[in-house]
Amino acid sequence: MEGLVSNFMDADHAYLDKLWVGFLGEENNPESSSELLKRFKRHLLLHIELEDNFLFPLLNSHINMGINPGLLAMAKRDHRNIIKLLAMVEEAGLGRDIREIKAASRHLHRALEKHRLREDEIHYPVCDFFVEPEEWNSALSRIYGKRLEKDAREGNKYLEKIYG
Ligand SMILES: [Fe+2]
Ligand SMILES: [Fe+2]
């Protein structure tokens, strides 16, 4: 899907994927995987903040024709579940039981996949229709500001579509 919001959020999901795959690759090694999990968590919370505090409330206020007033509630419920599952992965990591870590990560992996599919099919394409570039850019720099600066410093190109 092409669009202002879809482009950015798809790239952001891909970035989260990269962090998550990095963690999965180290699952057998709780020592180094906990650091990778922290990086994944930091960015996931930022992504969720952008959705819960800006994007989806805006989406709800634009869809007041009774088509689907529950889009924000649905996403928030998913996010709460994802954060709960992530806490279980962290807890398993503390116990250093590799079987537990693998089982907890599988649950989170499935929840992320399902959630992302829904956002890609419904939430983001609808947002593409009405989010104005100006309000989008100001929300991004408000919520992602430090992250974007860090990307620029490190030459991370994934946001260039928006700022390039
Ligand atoms: Fe989400
Ligand atoms: Fe998302």
Q: Let me know the number of strands.
A: 0
* Outline type: globular
Percent of residues in helices comes to over 70%
Q: Tell me, rounded to a whole number, the average pLDDT.
A: 86
Number of helices: 6
> What class would the helix/strand composition place it in?
mainly alpha
Query: In this structure, how is the largest beta sheet organized?
Result: none
Strand content: under 5%
Bound molecules: fe (ii) ion
The tally of structural domains comes to 1
Tell me the series of helices and strands, N- to C-terminal: HHHHHH
What is the end-to-end distance?
19 Å
List the uncertain runs. Answer: 160-164
Gyration radius, in Å: 17 Å
Task: Describe it.
The protein has one domain. It is 84% helix and 0% strand. The protein has helices at residues 4-25, 30-62, 71-95, 98-130, 133-153, 160-163. Helix 1 (4-25) runs antiparallel to helix 2 (30-62), helix 2 packs antiparallel against helix 5 and helix 3 (71-95) runs antiparallel to helix 4 (98-130). It is globular, with a radius of gyration of 17 Å. 20% of the residues are buried. It binds fe (ii) ion (2 copies). The site of one fe (ii) ion (FE2) has 6 residues, from helix 2, helix 3 and helix 4.
